[in-house]
Amino acid sequence: MDRRDFLKNKKRIVIKIGSSSLMHEETGEIDFIKVEKLVRILSDIKNQGKDVLLVSSGAIAVGSKSLGFKRRPETLTMKQACAALGQGELMMLYQKLFREYNHLAAQVLLTFDVITNDERRRNAMNTLIQLLDLDIIPVVNENDTVATEEIEFGDNDTLSAICACLTNADLLIVLSDIDGLFTDDPGKNKDAKRIPIVERITPEICAMGKGAGSGYGTGGMATKIAAAKIATDSGTDMAIINSKNLDLISQLLNGDDIGTLFLAHDDPDFDVTDYIVHKKYLE
Predict the structure, then answer these.
(1) What is the pLDDT of residues 45-65, one digit of tens each?
(2) pTM to 2 decimal places
(3) Helix, strand, coil percent values for the chain (each to nearest 5)
């Protein structure tokens, strides 16, 4: 059996997409064709009898554009205002498109303090699992309208890994702007090699994470490796694939050799609260 054939049997899948993957790079406007294609692919996965949970950035970016800003705002209050406007617009778009493919989508907004509080975390977990049991697609984002520096995740890579952990997902797919994890920055080093499979996240693997971002996004490869540590330690496989070609999602689930696959392993000492409170995933 090919090393990736087991991906065909995944039943509960979390997909994370970032702001920069949802927007036209030149204008900062929503890429409606891309969003529609994402919804169509996820709806088809649902039609195969699988559970789907979408973690989507974009609230601040959409709100910023609606207010005429050319770049992501820097002040906390302006970010919160943009998120309040943009989250509604983004969710309306998702619900409309999923409806066209006969699926329901529900908004779930989380903050850092929800995950670190035992009762709130259980409530969030129960809500997500109930939605999945009802065949509803949860669309999760950080609640940027109330999050402050003290209670924010800071990026949705981390949030997507936590959602995978809370829902006992067996696969997390992180859509990025490159083809996976490389031995060096492929934009600067033409000899950089893609790493197809990571069995263990070692210090050498962590060192390959290069901070990167765009005018609208906040994450980079370092945050994706940190997310992979949370996911794999909790028993969830994670893949990084290129968001420029959304057909890669289906190809990955068919077992094709694309992106970078981080293999899960059960860590007997794993505790999501300890990971998040003490940021153990960054060690």
Answers:
(1) 999 999 999 999 888 889 988
(2) 0.90
(3) 45, 15, 40
